Amino acid sequence: MSQCYLCPGNPRAAGDTNPKYENTFAFVNDYSAVKEQQPEYERTEGSTEDLEASLLKAEGVKGVCYVLTFSPKHHLTLADMSANETLPVIDHWTRIYANHLAASNPLKELVVKVNLSVSKEDAPTPKDEYRYMQIFENKGAAMGCSNPHPHCQVWTTSSMPEEPGKEMVAMATYRKEHGGRHLLADYVKLELAKAERVVWENETFVVICPWWAVWPFEVIIIPKRHVRCLLDFTDAERLHFAEAIQEVTRRYDNLFECSFPYSSGIHQAPLKGTQEEIDNSYLHMHFYPPLLRSATVRKFLVGYELMAEPQRDITPEQATVRLRNCGGELYRKSLS
């Protein structure tokens, strides 16, 4: 579209012009939430009786925020794209992750072995080292997305964010208490055996409505083998991962016959970490969708759910059955 700042050849808010890209394109967000260069945060020093110093604690965070387009075609979403069309997105995610690994990260040795369609020069490279990279997509106006052109964001930060940080602690504790076994590996084994919450699976991935789900139709994509990060994938596994993402997004759209909104994100090994932290990590992808009963009725975390604890409007087992039945061709293809 002529006014879209993500389409090939169009100008962006800061004045730069997009190249005539054919698959994916990544650039530093013109409205970055964190920046590489910013003033150091000045801590408030005081005695233990100084209430401000004791209670109001903050820490400065530096980083880089990127935007990554999925396709040059403005009207597409991941649900419209085939696995082969989604593969360049995964290749670009992997290359950005590889470019941002700290020099001390044990995963560095994998970079020279990986075969990707995106070269090192075609993906952003940072000036500094960062602790963590969060890849995420907000799809739809209901999830705060301001531009319908298919894209995601990639944030790198000097600190560990709360959610992946909590997961890392839980996975480290579980592994220590269970003789080196991985929490998500055991969880996959359990879910495949019970088969009550498995929406779909292929040779290397499983899509599950997790037992702990809060959001209606929440799913998680988990590899069947221990994968620490995107660099651990084989060529076949990257394509299988693309298939899993396509299955989830297409079934979402088919569920209420609409362009289904969601927030999704990949959790994986940190950019900078110890060997133990790296090995404790287990890559997985969360999908949090807000729609509850129809294309116009969404779930709100309010009242008791906001003040006390979330309540389920639909069980993971019920959601699983409905998503299983939403396979097949994307609904809007039969409308054209």
Automatic annotation (TrEMBL):
<dbReference type="Pfam" id="PF01087">
    <property type="entry name" value="GalP_UDP_transf"/>
</dbReference>
<keyword id="KW-0119">Carbohydrate metabolism</keyword>
<comment type="subunit">
    <text>Homodimer.</text>
</comment>
<dbReference type="GO" id="GO:0005737">
    <property type="term" value="C:cytoplasm"/>
</dbReference>
<feature type="binding site">
    <location>
        <position position="149"/>
    </location>
    <ligand>
        <name>Zn(2+)</name>
    </ligand>
</feature>
<feature type="binding site">
    <location>
        <position position="284"/>
    </location>
    <ligand>
        <name>Fe cation</name>
    </ligand>
</feature>
<dbReference type="GO" id="GO:0008270">
    <property type="term" value="F:zinc ion binding"/>
</dbReference>
<feature type="binding site">
    <location>
        <position position="4"/>
    </location>
    <ligand>
        <name>Zn(2+)</name>
    </ligand>
</feature>
<comment type="pathway">
    <text>Carbohydrate metabolism; galactose metabolism.</text>
</comment>
<comment type="similarity">
    <text>Belongs to the galactose-1-phosphate uridylyltransferase type 1 family.</text>
</comment>
<dbReference type="GO" id="GO:0008108">
    <property type="term" value="F:UDP-glucose:hexose-1-phosphate uridylyltransferase activity"/>
</dbReference>
<feature type="binding site">
    <location>
        <position position="74"/>
    </location>
    <ligand>
        <name>Zn(2+)</name>
    </ligand>
</feature>
<feature type="binding site">
    <location>
        <position position="267"/>
    </location>
    <ligand>
        <name>Fe cation</name>
    </ligand>
</feature>
<feature type="binding site">
    <location>
        <position position="286"/>
    </location>
    <ligand>
        <name>Fe cation</name>
    </ligand>
</feature>
<dbReference type="InterPro" id="IPR005849">
    <property type="entry name" value="GalP_Utransf_N"/>
</dbReference>
<keyword id="KW-0299">Galactose metabolism</keyword>
<dbReference type="InterPro" id="IPR001937">
    <property type="entry name" value="GalP_UDPtransf1"/>
</dbReference>
<protein>
    <recommendedName>
        <fullName>Galactose-1-phosphate uridylyltransferase</fullName>
        <ecNumber>2.7.7.12</ecNumber>
    </recommendedName>
</protein>
<dbReference type="InterPro" id="IPR005850">
    <property type="entry name" value="GalP_Utransf_C"/>
</dbReference>
<feature type="binding site">
    <location>
        <position position="167"/>
    </location>
    <ligand>
        <name>Fe cation</name>
    </ligand>
</feature>
<dbReference type="InterPro" id="IPR036265">
    <property type="entry name" value="HIT-like_sf"/>
</dbReference>
<feature type="domain" description="Galactose-1-phosphate uridyl transferase C-terminal">
    <location>
        <begin position="171"/>
        <end position="326"/>
    </location>
</feature>
<feature type="binding site">
    <location>
        <position position="7"/>
    </location>
    <ligand>
        <name>Zn(2+)</name>
    </ligand>
</feature>
<keyword id="KW-0808">Transferase</keyword>
<keyword id="KW-0479">Metal-binding</keyword>
<feature type="active site" description="Tele-UMP-histidine intermediate">
    <location>
        <position position="151"/>
    </location>
</feature>
<keyword id="KW-0862">Zinc</keyword>
<dbReference type="Pfam" id="PF02744">
    <property type="entry name" value="GalP_UDP_tr_C"/>
</dbReference>
<feature type="domain" description="Galactose-1-phosphate uridyl transferase N-terminal">
    <location>
        <begin position="3"/>
        <end position="161"/>
    </location>
</feature>
<dbReference type="GO" id="GO:0033499">
    <property type="term" value="P:galactose catabolic process via UDP-galactose, Leloir pathway"/>
</dbReference>
<keyword id="KW-0548">Nucleotidyltransferase</keyword>
<dbReference type="InterPro" id="IPR019779">
    <property type="entry name" value="GalP_UDPtransf1_His-AS"/>
</dbReference>
<keyword id="KW-0408">Iron</keyword>
